[in-house]
Amino acid sequence: MIKSAAKNRGDLQMQKGDELKINCNHCGKIFNIHVNKVRLRLIKDLFI
């Protein structure tokens, strides 16, 4: 998971660059993923 306040891929690319380094939780290998291959998802948590 990548934490970012970007609202679209253009903003994400400006913040993080063209490629993102993602660490696999299972094998520990680091992958370079291009910004266009990433799906953005808005997560809203409500803490009471």
Which properties best describe this structure?
1 helix, two-stranded antiparallel sheet, alpha+beta, globular, 21% strand, 48 residues, 2 strands
Structural notes for this entry:
- This protein has 48 residues and is an alpha+beta fold.
- The protein is built from one helix and two strands; from the N terminus they run αββ.
- Strands 1-2 form a two-stranded antiparallel ribbon.
- The longest helix has 8 residues, at 9-16.
- It is globular.
- The mean pLDDT is 80.
Basic shape: globular
Bin the strand percentage: 15-25%
The portion of residues assigned to helices is: 10-25%
Uncertain stretches: none
**In order across it, which strands form the biggest sheet?**
1-2
Instruction: Tell me, rounded to a whole number, the average pLDDT.
Output: 80
Gyration radius from CA atoms, angstroms? 12 Å
